[in-house]
Amino acid sequence: MLTVSDALRLVLDHASPLPPRRVPLAEAIGCALAETVLADRDLPPFDKALLDGFAVRTADLSGPVPVALEVIEEITAGRVPTRAIGPGQCSAIMTGAPMPDGADAVVMVEHSRRDGPRVLLCPPRPVLPDAGRLPRGREMRQGDPLLGPGTRLDAVKLGLLASVGWTNPLVSPRPVVTIASTGDELVPPDQVPGPGQIRNSNATVLEGLVRCCSGVPEVAPIAPDRPDPLREVLSRGLANDVLLITGGVSAGTLDLVPGTLAELGMTPVFHKIRLKPGKPLLFGVGPARPDGRPGTLVFGLPGNPVSGVVGFLLFVCPALKVLRGLPGAPPETITARLAQPFSHRGDRPSYVPALLRDPSPDLDGGPVVSPINWAGSADLRSVALADGFASFPAGDFDYEAGTPVPFLLLPRSQ
Ligand SMILES: Nc1nc2c(c(=O)[nH]1)N[C@H]1C(S)=C(S)[C@@H](COP(=O)(O)OP(=O)(O)OC[C@H]3O[C@@H](n4cnc5c(N)ncnc54)[C@H](O)[C@@H]3O)O[C@H]1N2
Ligand code: MOO
């Protein structure tokens, strides 16, 4: 059976960045830039006052304080100075306003006293040229490259784009992800399950995880275990960038998903991984789409809720990154030390829900991990309490407290 790393390599081999598109700034958060953004002007666009106070010639302030100067105008932000400062003169000036010609510093208003048309300046220290003033182009020069392709746009970077009028950046768009839950036993979360039924929790978990990975989720109606309605739901999902299906991928008589996908033209890449939970995971690529976009990446996640979470973190999230124009890499793990002895038994590498605790001085000061005594692949309750998954290799091993183990963090919304 395929290893996790081989399976991930196959997934990444079949994923490529979505064709870039221009989007309004407000929609670009979390997207990767697909172009170089250039400064459209110098910033600041003029020598700018950094303080509310008086624009002065420092040559006038070389003697003892207070110094009396004539105030020749008031320059507020958004106005343009009309008069140059000569010897013995100054202008009242506000933060963000352009410096008048002749002035080379600003004395803050707190160090002044008005005296009719004059002002008495009493700075506590000598005022040096450039004090309280930012020269034109200090932040950027027109034509400077500011951000390059592959840069992930966050709130601050979007603000930078706004400041240079780059209002429709070319980005790798967010992948649109269909979430299709299958199973006769499922009812929507707001319904009371009848005999033999359970609520559909997978769609909600996956919808949240897709959003955490900057995808756009589209939740399909629950597909019963019958060929026609299942085919209908899956075929619609093959129009989007990614199709996530939960349930119906193992060996049961009603596990119709792999066959139905094959009928719809999906090329299977792998089915089953040496992994617990998540063994029956299916991955394939849908037929090329009519508009020339590459085939949909199809993930048949096992129906057990925790298997779906693990499969998503290990394979779907890295694939979404590639589609979004970011580097494809295994999910990040940190190393944490076991807080207590732990025994792992099994022939598959396992991801066990666990709590992460603050660094412990007893264990070299690094983070500490406590596996949860969980009930297996359907136990969403334990995972809801966990910070992530501690990973253990296949085999029967007894680990001592303090053993370092890789820890896969669950994404948290901030
Ligand atoms: N003979 C074998 N049986 C099973 C194997 C196997 O290799 N051979 N693999 C087991 C493993 S491991 C897993 S994981 C499950 C996965 O099965 P399926 O992907 O076919 O999923 P289902 O059978 O449809 O459901 C499994 C389980 O999960 C519940 N479920 C399904 N969908 C949802 C949902 N949307 N929300 C909440 N819970 C859901 C479902 O009711 C089942 O209890 O197969 C093992 N069997
Ligand atoms: O691999 Mo299954 O996902 O153990 O429950």
TrEMBL record:
One of its GO terms (molecular function) is molybdopterin molybdotransferase activity. The keyword Magnesium applies. Residues 124-148 are annotated as: Disordered. Pathway: Cofactor biosynthesis; molybdopterin biosynthesis. SUPFAM superfamilies: MoeA C-terminal domain-like, MoeA N-terminal region -like, Molybdenum cofactor biosynthesis proteins. One of its GO terms (biological process) is Mo-molybdopterin cofactor biosynthetic process. Its cofactor is Mg(2+). Gene3D superfamilies: MoaB/Mog-like domain, MoeA, C-terminal, domain IV, Molybdopterin biosynthesis moea protein, domain 2, Molybdopterin biosynthesis moea protein, domain 3. It catalyses: adenylyl-molybdopterin + molybdate = Mo-molybdopterin + AMP + H(+). GO terms for cellular component: cytosol. InterPro entries: MoaB/Mog-like_dom_sf, MoaB/Mog_dom, MoCF_biosynth_CS, MoeA-like, MoeA_C_domain_IV, MoeA_C_domain_IV_sf, MoeA_linker/N, MoeA_linker/N_sf. Its EC number is 2.10.1.1. It comes from the Bacteria. Keywords: Magnesium, Metal-binding, Molybdenum, Molybdenum cofactor biosynthesis, Transferase. CDD domains: MoeA. Catalyzes the insertion of molybdate into adenylated molybdopterin with the concomitant release of AMP. Belongs to the MoeA family. This is Molybdopterin molybdenumtransferase. It comes from Tautonia sociabilis.
